[in-house]
Amino acid sequence: MSVTTGRTAWKKQLTVDRRIVRLLSASTYDDFPGAIREMVSNAYDADATEVNITIDLKNDLIEVTDNGNGMTPEEFDFFLRIAGQQRGKRTSPEFGRQRIGQFGIGFLATFPFGKRMQVVSSARRSDVRFEAIVPTERFMQEGQRLVDVEDIPIQGYEVRGPRLLEEHGTTIRMIGLTDMVSGYFQARNIVIRGSRSTVRAWEPLARLEWSLSEDLPLAYPSESPYREAFSDLGPSGITVRLNGKELFRNSPGSHILENKAWESNGISCRYVIATDWKSINPSENRYLKQRLRNVGIGTRTSFGLGLEGRAYSRLHWLTGEIRILDGFDNLLSIDRAKFIDSPEYDQFREYFRSRLGYFANHVETISEAQRDIKRQFSDSRAAEVGARRDVVGRNVEKLASRGFKVVSKREDQSSRKASPVSIDIERKVVEIVEDHQAFLDTISVGSEKIPVRYKAWEWEAAKEKFPAVRWANDGAIEINTSYPLFESRRYGEVFKKVLVIILTLAEKSNSPQDLVSRVARQLPEEFSGLS
C-alpha cells in the first residue's frame, strides 16, 4: 500500500502585527535560548511527550522534533493567521494540559535566528502531512522596512495516505543560521572573577542547557528534594533532549527549609524555599523561580529584598521555586518575562519578601551558631574569648530557638565520642557530650598546657596590676572578659594569647630585655600560620 496518494501545492500568508516583527528584528543572540524554549513550549501545548532538539552548527541547522498532536494544513493556516493574538482554548485536546502559550508569538520568536524555516507536520488521526517553507529572512527585512509582510508568500504542499493516520507530530528546522546564532555560540569575551559562579561565563552549549532547564516544564532530577516536595502535583509529562542528552529541571538547594501552600484573593500556589548552607552557585540559581502553568516566568527574584533598606548577609544562600496554580493568567506580560503590577501581585510579592527575610535570618543564625561552636574547639584565632561551656551554651540556645532539639549525653553514651558537640542540620538535632574533655578550658604556651578561668574585673582601676590576665593562687590563669581588646571577634583570641605568653614568660625572665627577647622568640612559634 502506498504511503501517499497525492500531492497538492499551496501558498499561504502570515498575518501579524508589524510592530511585533519590528520588535523581533531588535533581537540579540541573548534571545536565542528563548526562541528554543518557545518551540518546546509549542510542543508541550500540542500534547507532546517527547521533544528532541538538535544543534548542528556544522551543517547550519537547528531542528526541533516532537510527537505531539501535529497540525493539519488548515490548522497551520489558522496558526499563521492569529500569530500575535490571544489563543482560544486554554487546555490541550489530548491530555488537557494548561497551555503555556496564549499570545501566539512563539512561532515568530524563531524568525531572527534562521534564514529559512521548514515546518513538517501531520496531525493526530489525520491522513495528511504537509511541509511549508517560511522565508524568515525576508520577514525580518520587510519588518524593518515597514512593508506589508502579508505580501511574502509561504510556499508548501501536502500529501495524503492511509499510513499517515498512524503518524503525528511536528518538525521545525531553522536552516541557514544567522549571525545571532553564531554570536551566541562564539561569545566568550566575558571575563569574570570566579567564573563558575555565573552562567554567563559558561560554554555556550552549557548555557543553553541551563536556560532550557530553568524554564521548561521538565521532570526533577531523581536526587532533588523538590521531586518529593511537589510529587502530588503530578509528572511533567514531557521528556526533552538536547543533542541526545535528557534535560531535567534546575532545582538548586539540597536542603528544603519550607514546603508550603499559600493562597489569597483567588491566587493559590505551592512553594519550596531551600539552601545548600552556603552561597548558591551559579548566582543565577539564587532566589525564587516563579512558574505559571509549570513554566518559568522571567529570572529568579528576591522580590526586591536586600536591594534597599536592611541588608541580609545570607540572602544569597537561599533558592527555591513557586508553582502558581491559580491566578495571574491575565497579568502575564506578552514576552512571559514578568507579571504586571496589580494589588494581588503586590500582596503575593510582599508575602514572599517576608518569607525570604525570615529564612535569610534563619540560616544566618544557624550557620553562625554552628561556626562559633566549631571555633571554640578548634583553637581558632576567631574564637570568642570566654569559657567554652558558656560560649557553646549561648549558641546552642540560638539553635534551640530555631527549632533544634538539644540532646545531652555522657561520653560513654554518645556515638560521636570524638566531638563534644554534634549538629545535624537535616534532623535539626544538637547532641552535647557534657563530660567531654574538650570542655575543659586550657591554654597552651609552648609545650605547657595551663588551666584557664574566665572572670570579669575592673581593668582600669589604678590599683589593678593585671588588667587583662593574671595568675590565680592555684596556678591557673584568669582571663578578664571585661578587657576591651578581648571583645574583638576577629582578634580577641590573638590578644589573649599574646598577653598570656607575656605573663608566663615574665616570671622566667631576668630583666625587661630578657622578657622582650623571650616573647619575640615565642611569638613566631605560637603564630606560625600568620607568617
Question: What does this 3D model show about the protein?
Answer:
The structure is a single chain. By secondary structure, the chain is of the alpha+beta class. The protein is built from 11 helices and 21 strands. It has helices spanning 18-25, 32-45, 73-81, 136-145, 179-186, 204-215, 225-229, 343-376, 388-401, 492-506, 512-526; strands spanning 6-13, 50-56, 61-66, 114-122, 128-134, 153-160, 169-177, 239-242, 245-246, 255-264, 267-275, 287-292, 295-301, 318-326, 405-409, 421-424, 429-433, 442-445, 448-455, 469-471, 477-480. The strands form 4 sheets. Strands 1-6-5-4-7-3-2-8-9 form a 9-stranded mixed beta sheet. Strands 10-11-14-12-13 form a 5-stranded mixed beta sheet. Strands 18-19-21-20 form a 4-stranded mixed beta sheet, covered by helices on one side. Helix 8 (343-376) runs antiparallel to helix 9 and helix 10 packs across helix 11. The radius of gyration is 33 Å and the shape is elongated. Mean pLDDT is 87; it is low at 83-87.
